[in-house]
Amino acid sequence: MTDLLELIFEVVAVAALAYFIALNSIYLALTAIAWRAIGLHRREQGYAATEDAFASPLTPPVSVLLPAYNEEAGIVESVRSLLALRYPEHEVIVVNDGSSDGTIAVLAEAFDLAPVRKVLRETISTAPVRATYASRRHDNLFVVDKTNGGKADALNAGVNAARYPYVCAVDADAVLEEDALLRVAKPILDDPELVAATGGIVRIANGCQVEHGQVLEVALPSSRLATLQVVEYFRAFLVGRVGWSRLRSLLIISGAFGLFRRSLVDAVGGWSTTTVGEDVELVVRLHRHLRDRGEDYRVEFVADPVCWTEVPEDLRQLSRQRRRWQRGLVETLWRHRRVVGNPRYGTLGLVGAPYFVVFEALGPAIEVFGYPAVMASAALGNVSATFLVAFFVVSILLGVLLSVTALALEELTFRRHGRHRDAARLLAFALLENFGYRQLTSFWRLYAFVDLARRRHAWGVMDRRGLASTSAGRSSRR
Amino acid sequence: VTTALAWCAIVCGVASAGCTVVLALRRLALARQERRRAEAEARLRPLAVMLVEGEVPDASTLEAGDAEILAGVLARYSRWLTGDARSHVARFFEREGGVDAEMRALGDRRAWRRATAAYTLGDMASTRAAPALVAALDDHARAVRAAAARSLGRLGAADAAEPLVLALVEGRVPRAVAGQALLAIGPNALPRLAELVDHDDATVRASVIELIGLLGDAAAAAFLLERLRDASAEVRAKAARALGRLAADEAAAGLRAALRDRIPFVRVSAAHALGMVGDRDSVGDLLRVARADAVPDVAQAASGAVGRIAPDLLLRAATVPDAGPHVHEAADLLELRA
Under an 8 A CB cutoff, do B142 and A190 touch? Predict the structure, then answer.
């Protein structure tokens, strides 16, 4: 019995070590790719003809979709930021997904809405639409009021109402920078035949000064938990998304800010209403749709169009959010398991999807059980104490190095946190996040499997203060 | 293994610490650099204004750093200048050797340097750079080609119209950028565009027709009319749109016929165009399409067109119970924004 236990501990310890080496090697490789890509991208900004694209009548118009569920606190600011976008031609379609608060009322008052009999295509079936409104003040603002069907259903209703060939999905609590749409559309403007979808970077608005739908001053949140997420988002977006995009295996375009060719969204049947990871699921489905037809295409991540959003500031809500993201990812990978390891899907099938299965979906289990297993192995004498100490020191220092390089990437390129004090604080949190925070998020992600086993599919409620005041709403960032 | 891990820990620790130190030093250096640049720009602005106004102050005594900042300020100004003021900027850069330096940089082996040079030449406003920029439209790097196209537009280089159109239709430069450059060149580009209307390649014909619609005048309508019967649906749609933009009255009959085209996006374009032409005789046809066309985009475009041509008729049509959802929608929007 003892021998069997020893063997199990040894196997888990070796698996943990192998996992640790492989994961960090991939992270380092992604970091190197991201450094090169972002450096190139920043240099290109010096000669990118963005202003000319803004002035050009040949720039394709875009329908911006804003699904809203109980977003009374922040919806007006968000809509203002969308109306203020610098883009040659765009419309804003707010979809009120059966809110039980005053979302419709605040919109009606702020934008002088009146009922209109707007025709909605029936390309994608959705929950019933109760009414449609247009604004007397803004020719390009429409509101679709429907019964509750979830975020994906609301987005699909938005697609049905959209007039333009591209749709941009934005979270209701998000604030886009003035040029964000133009920048996220840049790959499409450069190559409309090739680029199917693009996503932009999501940054954390907690602590920033937001007025009239614009971030006036960038600052770090006072909450430690939110500051840890700032560092985490740098790593996820500036390293992960940029790296995977370069490898043509971008699986995730954040639900908070993504631009899609409408005809493709129609062709694949819109966002899936049967998963909480509708953003990742749609991207994977688009990949499959296009690869199955042998079409040449790109799904790209652009590192500088900024979307600001609010993140949870307490553990309960953060846990709920992370478990939901993990459920969404696992559901998507299971639904599209045919892609994993399938050469037909190119680097996506052979590199991207297997990575997400091994390191993102199953990784938390190895992380959570791996550390105790290594310690147990040491206790049983299979591993020396020196090895144990060295292993933990390396794992912490590698984590620190990866966080610091992500910070460096931000600092050497976009440098949005101008205050020296904020930069020093970010650096401190890049160290701190390795002592507890990362382990905690791994635990939550593992716990998501329990949610899956219990067949919990609810989004849950995120209490939000709103970028202007206080509210409760549904968060979808990842 | 333990030794390897120890080395790994040392490397990670040193790399993290090094990275942190470099970041801190760079942040301080950048803050100082930005402060100095802001001070220099404020100091050099009067000199830049003198140059724009045609005076020739002695800039030879400027330090290298200041000269670079002055050039940057002038290049930025030139984006918003026209006429003599822009010529003065061009003369400054020609005199100081900036144009020659950037033209030489178009041959640099680094793509980013060539692209920067192509972009900067547009801001330097010297038409001497046009032939070199036309050649840069064939550069193997897409960014260089895009920057060259943008600069040719800035220079208003009429001779560049044909290579720009070809670069656009062959997908060598982004459509939005090449299109904007051709619009910046303006009506001078029209004669060459007109010659390409009968091009063998339907994609070329469609792009050219779209540009004529944006650049041309009513005189261009004559040779666009027959393109409403082109074999390519894309060309027919673009021709309809262009005729609408040109508000060509004589196109109304052809556009009404195009409302019956078998391809929906051609019908959408025809409906839009009739709205822009403002032909009241088409209202009956448009209302029929708005009520009966099975493709929502077509019906929507037709009702919108009726609203544009004859708001009173649209509102009256909407009172009929079987007017159809698109007529109701257009009427609601019309009333809302009246």
Answer: yes
